[in-house]
Amino acid sequence: MRIRKTILACLIFFPAFLSADNKHTPAPPFEPTIPWLSDLDTALEQSRTTGKPILVGFR
Amino acid sequence: MRPKKNSPLAKLQEKFIRLRFTNMAEIDIGVFEFDFNTTFGLFVINHRKEIYLRYGARNDAGAETYLSFPSATLALQRGLKLHQDWKAGKIKLPPAGKSRMSQTFANVRNVVQKNQCVHCHQVAEGQALELFALQNFDKKTMPWIFPDPVKLGLGLNLDDPTVVERPTGAASKAGIESGEQILKVDGKLVSTFADIQYVLHHLPRHRKEVTLVTSHGSRKIILPSYWRITDLNRRSIGHKMEPFPGFWGKPLTLGEKKKLGLKAGSFATRSTKFWVQTQGAKAGLKEGDIVIEVDGVTASPLATNAQIYIRLHYNSGDQVTLKYLRAGKPHEAKYTLKAKPW
After folding, report:
1. Residue B44 lies in a domain
2. Closest chain A residue to B121, measured at CA
3. What is the pLDDT of chain B when averaged over all its residues?
4. Residue A29's Cα: distance from chain center in Å?
5. Is there a domain that residue A10 lies in?
6. Contact A58/B79, CB-based, under 8 Å?
7. Structure confidence at residue A33 (pLDDT)
8. CB atoms within 10 A of CB B155
9. How many CB atoms lie within 10 A of CB A28?
10. Could you give the CA distance from residue B59 to residue B230 in angstroms, rounded to a whole number?
């Protein structure tokens, strides 16, 4: 019973331990602070309704 | 290039609807026409797809010469002002360009069919192949696109490239002085370096002069010889044009040429890795050799390096004799040119 608890604890805490080490922390998913659209028609429609110009970037 | 959070450039972005393309597979290049051999491009447009300005262009000196946070910030500020003026009916814009999708190029379609991302330079390759296929394609006049305003004597300020900082040559003869701001080129409003380059790119080939409206008045520039010439070695056109010169290479810097006692404008190309056994390699050329002469020619107004000179002046099947330096000593390599490296 004690062994099972130990294994369970390891399974739960070991990944947390790993993530405490920077080397094993996966990079957070990229979340741009300002969202950019990827569909031209959506951008044109939003520009029409808001009156804002459109900034189109190619990279 | 990523502006810091809360920087003027980051805050300015919030005043726009923002649209970003990272794949050229479904792009209307008739509307979004720019130099596809650049690394970065921005447009400010309205909901009718009419363009206020372009940003993101380069010259032979480097891919980022005219990219900076101050110049990008200025471009966005000018884009907002133009949008306000357009909404107020103060300015009229040229209609959106005639539609042409990127997949009309066969090489772009091939990339899409492989389920791969289409890069800007692949669109440039499509344009190059289309140009070469023209019946009237002329190697001596047609390969040069998006000219550098410096060839007109317009040494421009890096952070506001509409301001002339160092007028020389044709610009100086036209009376342009340091500090003048270029407002229009050939009747078109310009707000950025890319705008100026775009108008010059579309200037008809037969034109002998171009009129600029600056902050100081109207200026007529007589277009000098070879004003469209830039280094094709950094372009898809330069890499795809046949014949293959027999070697790959990188031009020497001015400092390297000086050390070797070569003139600034002379050919001096250090051959790089031979990926396959080319005709040049079979004739004895090795990586590191410095090619300085092609059939007795050491410089050309059309080419700043030997590879481009060969592509422009020879055809497949022609014989060529190169002079090159190895460990400072001159050698020769004679071979027949082929269309491709293999």
Report:
1. no
2. A59
3. 94
4. 3
5. yes
6. no
7. 53
8. 16
9. 6
10. 8
- Is B15 inside a domain boundary? no
| ipTM of model | 0.90
A34/B13 touch (CB, cutoff 8 Å), yes or no: yes
Q: What pLDDT is recorded for position B154?
A: 97
pLDDT at residue number B207: 96
Residues of chain B whose beta carbon is less than 8 angstroms from a beta carbon of chain A are 5, 10, 13-22, 24, 27-28, 32, 34, 39-47, 49, 52, 56, 76, 79-80, 83, 87, 120
Residue A46 covered by a domain: yes
Which amino acid is it at B190? V
The two three-digit tokens of residue B48, written as one number: 């009718």
* Number of separate domains in chain B: 2
Residue A20, pLDDT > 50, answer no
On whether residue A57 sits in a domain, the answer given is no
pLDDT digits (tens, 9 = 90+) for B268-317: 999 999 999 999 999 999 999 999 999 999 999 999 889 999 999 999 99
B255 in the same domain as B203 = no
Measure the CA–CA gap between B108 and B117, rounded to whole angstroms.
Answer: 10
Verify whether the Cβ–Cβ distance B13 to A55 is below 8 Å.
Answer: yes
Q: Would you call B17 and A53 a contact, using CB atoms and an 8 Å cutoff? A: yes
Nearest to B18 among A40, A51, A55 (CB): A55
A20 CB near a chain B CB, below 8 Å? no
Q: B76 to chain A nearest CA, in Å?
A: 8
Predicted confidence (pLDDT) at residue B213 exceeds the cutoff of 60:
yes
Measured between CA atoms, the residue of chain A closest to residue B20 is: A57
The domain in which residue A34 lies consists of 2-50
Q: Which of B313, B312, B320 is nearest to B293 (CA)?
A: B320
pLDDT at residue B5 greater than cutoff 80? no
Percentage of chain B exceeding pLDDT 70: 99
Q: Is there a domain that residue B159 lies in? A: yes
Contact (CB<8Å) B42/A58: yes
Pick the range with the lowest mean pLDDT from B39-43, B108-112, B162-166, B172-176. Answer: B39-43
Task: Give SS3 for B280.
Answer: helix
Which CATH number covers residue B185? 2.30.42.60
Range of the domain at B173: 149-222
> Chain A partners of B20 at a C-beta cutoff of 8 Å?
36-38, 56-59
Asked if the structure places residue B166 within a domain, the reply is yes
Q: Count structural domains, chain A.
A: 1
> Edge-to-edge, what's the strand order for the sheet holding B249-251?
B249-251, B269-271, B290-294, B319-326, B329-336
